[in-house]
């Protein structure tokens, strides 16, 4: 009998099982798993947002490790997994560079008004006048919230582009290479561009609220690469409409897919569908990693 790995999303799990060429079997709610069989599962596979809550974890009483496809773990009850000593094996470093690259691209698109420039040419407005000047990125003060894998990759790229990079997180990092702000609010008050790359969990819900958004100000740009709930979305929308925040770029949302009507009249905004880490190269690397780490977990 093949080793069994528990998952919640059947099509996603079957892709990984196929990549493994039958080395293990994916099981889940679709396979009529009995209570006794569920209790024997030692390894689970998660997208990171599917809900591994305390009730489900109680059914998986023999679980030892959860292999997460990407970096996020917002769907996993981390307090319960910590209490039970369940290992969380996430792919933080695998596609951090791809996420950071996407974030920098969004910053450049907004600061240099690339979408507006495209429209200016296509609409024929160029024949009637000159497009307004944009903002240089080099020399900008950039704050990174959370200096994990993605935060560091953002900092490296923005540093290379000539930005003055600072960061804030709850824990000092002596090897950071960039100065740490005294507080999150201090970071928002002293930067022009605020990149959110914080670890998303219950304690970071609405970490970025009205105070931080107002501190960033009418010339500021907020970029969220973490999870939607880390930023107070209602406060963000209100600030953009009122002109209290200059610009925003969002790859993540409180509800996904986000309702398009929610953003229909919100100005100075660039949106992408939680796709920052979704490159051909990163998806292949993540699939290969998932197979490798599940196999290793089954051997432990």
UniProtKB/TrEMBL annotation:
<dbReference type="Pfam" id="PF00389">
    <property type="entry name" value="2-Hacid_dh"/>
</dbReference>
<feature type="domain" description="D-isomer specific 2-hydroxyacid dehydrogenase NAD-binding">
    <location>
        <begin position="104"/>
        <end position="276"/>
    </location>
</feature>
<dbReference type="Pfam" id="PF02826">
    <property type="entry name" value="2-Hacid_dh_C"/>
</dbReference>
<keyword id="KW-0521">NADP</keyword>
<dbReference type="InterPro" id="IPR006140">
    <property type="entry name" value="D-isomer_DH_NAD-bd"/>
</dbReference>
<dbReference type="GO" id="GO:0051287">
    <property type="term" value="F:NAD binding"/>
</dbReference>
<protein>
    <submittedName>
        <fullName>Lactate dehydrogenase</fullName>
    </submittedName>
</protein>
<keyword id="KW-0520">NAD</keyword>
<keyword id="KW-0560">Oxidoreductase</keyword>
<dbReference type="GO" id="GO:0005829">
    <property type="term" value="C:cytosol"/>
</dbReference>
<feature type="domain" description="D-isomer specific 2-hydroxyacid dehydrogenase catalytic">
    <location>
        <begin position="35"/>
        <end position="299"/>
    </location>
</feature>
<dbReference type="InterPro" id="IPR006139">
    <property type="entry name" value="D-isomer_2_OHA_DH_cat_dom"/>
</dbReference>
<dbReference type="InterPro" id="IPR050223">
    <property type="entry name" value="D-isomer_2-hydroxyacid_DH"/>
</dbReference>
<comment type="similarity">
    <text>Belongs to the D-isomer specific 2-hydroxyacid dehydrogenase family.</text>
</comment>
<dbReference type="GO" id="GO:0016618">
    <property type="term" value="F:hydroxypyruvate reductase [NAD(P)H] activity"/>
</dbReference>
<dbReference type="GO" id="GO:0030267">
    <property type="term" value="F:glyoxylate reductase (NADPH) activity"/>
</dbReference>
<dbReference type="InterPro" id="IPR036291">
    <property type="entry name" value="NAD(P)-bd_dom_sf"/>
</dbReference>
């Amino acid at each position: 009998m093949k080793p069994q790995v528990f998952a919640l999303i059947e099509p996603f799990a079957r892709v990984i099982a196929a990549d493994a060429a039958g080395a293990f079997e994916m099981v889940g709610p679709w396979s009529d798993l009995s209570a006794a069989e569920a209790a024997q599962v030692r390894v689970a596979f998660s997208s990171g947002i599917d809900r591994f809550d305390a009730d489900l974890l109680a059914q998986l009483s023999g679980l030892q490790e959860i292999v997460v496809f990407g970096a996020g773990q917002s769907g996993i009850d981390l307090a319960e997994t910590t209490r039970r000593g369940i290992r969380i094996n996430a792919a933080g470093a695998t596609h951090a560079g791809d996420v950071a690259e996407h974030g920098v691209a969004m910053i450049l698109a907004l600061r240099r008004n690339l979408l507006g420039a495209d429209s200016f040419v296509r609409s024929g407005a160029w024949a009637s006048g000159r497009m307004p000047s944009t903002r240089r990125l080099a020399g900008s003060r950039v704050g990174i919230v959370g200096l994990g894998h993605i935060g560091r990759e953002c900092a490296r790229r923005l540093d290379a582009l000539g930005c003055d990079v600072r960061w804030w997180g709850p824990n000092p990092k002596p090897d950071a290479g960039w100065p740490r702000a005294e507080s999150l609010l201090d970071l928002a008050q002293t930067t022009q561009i605020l990149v959110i790359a914080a670890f998303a969990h219950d304690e970071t819900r609405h970490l970025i609220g009205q105070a931080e958004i107002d501190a960033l100000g009418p010339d500021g740009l907020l970029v969220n690469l973490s999870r939607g709930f880390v930023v107070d979305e209602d406060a963000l929308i209100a600030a953009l409409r009122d002109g209290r925040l200059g610009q925003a770029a969002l790859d993540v949302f409180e509800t996904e897919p986000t309702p398009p009507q929610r953003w229909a009249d919100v100005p100075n905004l660039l949106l992408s569908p939680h796709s920052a880490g979704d490159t051909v190269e990163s998806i292949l690397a993540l699939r290969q990693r998932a197979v490798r780490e599940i196999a290793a977990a089954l051997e432990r």
